[in-house]
Amino acid sequence: MRRKAESYIRENQMIAKGDRVIAAVSGGADSVCMLHVLVSLKEILEFDIFVVHVHHGLRGPEADRDGEYVRELSAIWEVPCLVVQTDAAAYAKEHGMGVEEAGRELRYRIFAREAERTGAARIAVAHHQEDQAETILHNLFRGSALKGLGGMEPVRGKIIRPLLWADRREILEYLEQRGISYCTDSTNASMEYTRNKLRSLVIPMICKEINPGAVGHIAEAGKRLLEAERYFDQESERLWQENRLQGSSGRRRGIPADALAGFPDILKGYVVMKMMGELTGSRKDLASVHVAAVLDLAGGKTGRSVNLPWGLTARREYDAVWIEQGEPEEEEGALEEKRAWEDLFSCPLFTVKCFPAEIIKEKYRKIPENKYTKWFDYDKIKGTVSVRTRRPGDYFLLKDGKRKTIKAFMIDEKIPRRERDRILLVTEGQHVLWIVGRRISEFYKVTDATKQILQVSTVGGEEHGR
């Protein structure tokens, strides 16, 4: 047992020289075995141990007995020990979850807290092969992605599982041979919990009726699935980095729709999950149904959107799929009430000059083609000229004299919705003289009859993102 455990710890780089390791000890056979093995290895691997036992406030005197036993055992083996009492039932009620789930959440929260307090690099928990098989089957039956079917990892963050390779029989034999006693949790026999049904009914039946070595085979399959999961994760990361769109930062991630649709089917979901995970920092509550909803956008029409967990919204914008965090974009023009607009002649982004047409035409010979400097027929301007962002009803005139709304123009030009409220307009009322950086209204164009020319230039132009 010690030899195999040492090999497994070294193979998975679980403990480094000088580490402090918190041993999560319930008092049951598995955790007592783990603690004894770690104590026997601490001089060889040069680390120290700190025991933490969590009393969940359940099972009455039985739980008190377990806590006292862990204290005594730690004292015998000369290991520091802390017993922490919680109220799992109250926590479960407060957070709307089952008592079993509440207990697990509280345990790991306490372990993390004590690791921080004591400077521990690792938290050792006593899961073994049967636990692994139970986890894999549980995830399979309730529906899980490949990662869930891989079961528990030997190392995940600070959590290590030094006995994940061992089966229950080996653990019990080890304790019996050394005369080490342990506590039994009476709730393990209860069929109220799904995992207990798997542990007490399903797995024993499989081993008896199908294959005595089923547990080992399930655990081995999980190991292979974890290897596949790591490979797909690496490949999807490569595809994401190679295809991510500019602007994929902050609270927004985007990818070309045709690129996403062209990825191998098994990798599409991984890429989408990466996009969502980068925004949320966690994949909790993100499921295959959400991935499918995003993938559906890749083959859909522009303008479609879906709401996702964590306040995420995915939408199709022309040739791309974007996922953003925060409130969905407000309706056309709704942001305008929040935006200050400035008089053209005092706006720091612009310089304005007025010339007699005869002088300027003779000097320049032709109308400037620079998209950030434009000429306008000054005499056609009757009202106040302003620079602002779009409003409902804004329009400009085409060559045939027909009106075209700014909304229609931006749709035709495939300008993403998020960018539309950033584009500046030079306007006279609702008539737009110039969609800055793009085009001007035919009505205000300079002609042979123009007597005065208004020249407007943007300062900085493209350098200012305008």
What this model shows, in words?
The chain is α+β, with helices and mostly antiparallel strands and 466 residues long. It has 3 domains: 2-211, HUPs (Rossmann fold), CATH 3.40.50.620; 244-325, 2-Layer Sandwich (Uridine Diphospho-n-acetylenolpyruvylglucosamine Reductase, domain 3); 334-464, Phenylalanyl-tRNA Synthetase, Chain B, domain 3, CATH 3.50.40. The chain has helices at residues 2-11, 29-45, 61-76, 88-95, 99-118, 129-142, 146-149, 168-178, 194-209, 214-243, 257-262, 265-280, 288-298, 357-364, 406-412, 417-420; strands at residues 20-24, 48-55, 81-85, 122-124, 155-156, 159-160, 252-256, 305-308, 312-317, 320-325, 342-343, 350-356, 373-377, 385-388, 395-397, 403-405, 425-428, 431-435, 439-440, 452-458. A 6-stranded mixed β-sheet has the order 3-2-1-4-6-5, with helices on both faces. A 5-stranded antiparallel β-sheet has the order 11-14-17-18-19, with no helix packed on it. It has a 4-stranded antiparallel β-sheet with strand order 7-10-9-8. It starts with a helix and ends in an 8-residue tail after the last strand. The model is unreliable at 328-348 and 461-466 (pLDDT under 50).
Low-confidence runs? 328-348, 461-466
How much of the sequence lies in strands comes to 15-25%
Structurally, the number of domains stands at: 3
Q: What is the CATH level 1 assignment of the largest domain?
A: Alpha Beta
What is the CATH superfamily label of the largest domain?
HUPs
For the largest beta sheet, what order do the strands appear in spatially? 3-2-1-4-6-5
Mean pLDDT: 85
Shape: elongated
CATH topology of the largest domain: Rossmann fold
Structural class: alpha+beta
Overall radius of gyration: 34 Å
Per DSSP, the total helix count is: 16
Query: Can you count the beta strands?
Result: 20
Distance between the termini: 68 Å
Helix content: 40-55%
* Major sheet details: 6 strands, mixed
CATH architecture term of the largest domain: 3-Layer(aba) Sandwich
